[in-house]
Amino acid sequence: MTKTIYLATLCLLLSLAAAAQPIAFTVSMDNPAAHYFRVVMQCHGLKGKNQDFKMPVWTPGYYQRLDFANNLDSFSVTDGNARPLAWEKTSGNTWRVQSNNAATLTISYIIRTKRAFVATPYLDDTRGYISPAGVFLHPAGKLQQPVQVVVKPFTAWKDVATGLDTVAGEPYTYTAPDYDALYDSPLLIGNLEELPAFTVSGIPHRFIGYRPGDFDKVQFMSDLKKIVETASAIIGHIPYRQYVFIAIGPGAGGIEHANSTTISFNGAGLSSPKERLRLLNFIAHEYFHHYNVKRIRPIELGPFDYDNGSRTKMLWVSEGLTVYYEYLILRRAGLSTEEDLFNNIRSNITAFETKTGKLYQSLAEASYETWRDGPFGRTADTVVKTISYYDKGPVVGMLFDFAIRHATKNQRSLDDVMRRLYREFYQQKQRGFTEQELRAVIESTAGSRMDQLFDYIYTTKEINYQKYLAYAGLAMGSDHKIIRIQNPDALQAAILESWLGEGR
Ligand SMILES: [Zn+2]
Questions:
Q1: How far is the CA of 431 from the centre of ligand 1 (A)?
Q2: Can you give the residue range of the structural domain that contains 71?
Q3: Model confidence pTM above 0.85
């Protein structure tokens, strides 16, 4: 090997090493009572005169603009020789650095936090919560870069809960293969409590929380295991290597991720049967989302548009059907009764039917306009002209399920639709589905057209509940009460039995 070739090879190897070097973050929280994180970001090998750095305006799973950049202060940047570089804001969420081909950039900033909520970063003297889209900048156009995060917990704290991979021998060090994985992996930091873990198909499932409360933790984890077993049996495949339920403390709401979920949680409520059912439904919902929306997904929900938000007309699938499946999972797991299931469906029908929004807005429009109307619709209007896909979505999901079961003599169900979407789009095509593709999967599973049901998605046409409930030997009584009909025929009885998860 000549010296020239040797040098050229060395340069190539060095540049490859630079390209593969992860963007490195350090997050510290020395004064948690002041409610801010200090972040240092180091990037290598970014070429060019200028380099733009961006903060997402939203976090996937919560379809509202949160403008995280507004919480970023004290931005500064230096090159590899610690010389300060000039920078300017060029949009609400863009910092343009005059990098002049510097081999290394070190950016420092703080993230002020205001509200303890699943979608926003938060820090106080009890715990820290990193909602990553609100904490980590990315170099514009380079979301595919690998990332490493070192957390420096406040001195009195020792635990971190996250779905991110750890680095052996390096405490509090985490890696993500790219920014999509990083932005999908929140971290909870503090003195946390871990409940007894379980495995399903050999895969570990952990529950780690900030002050989860006083309750029967063995019973609760046994219930959670049943939820995971029942939900994963619907799809027939578990796609992650580990899963973490991250309980961030009391409050409302949860956000789903590919191998974790963050949930507001107060276990003290588990002693009330009604609250226990609500909490298990909520956890089953967030868990089932790792299939339905993280992997079985509308084509618009990935790659994400972190600058503007990603709009789809199919949140009735991602949210509505997830509500429907939370009910079915609990029933099939033996954690709820037939009456609980009927009451859940009834409460959605009542919520939808008793508001004027049903005359004005279709389910597809409610999905698309959630960025304008909020997750539950514009409920404060004088005349309500919006609906919630959390109400109409699960109801229409049930009607599709009954229609498929009826059309196939109970040989197929909505479960087959979910399995096909998982296999054909997530596993094989490795992308989401369009509205037309979804319709094709549903109608080919049923073996017939479903025009009337798709009218319930795309129009405000009145729903014929009795027709579809009858397929399962059910009827709607006064005040939307769901009841069994007398003397169902064999097909009706078989559909009802398998839908209720009996004889499995
Ligand atoms: Zn949801």
A1: 20
A2: 23-183
A3: yes
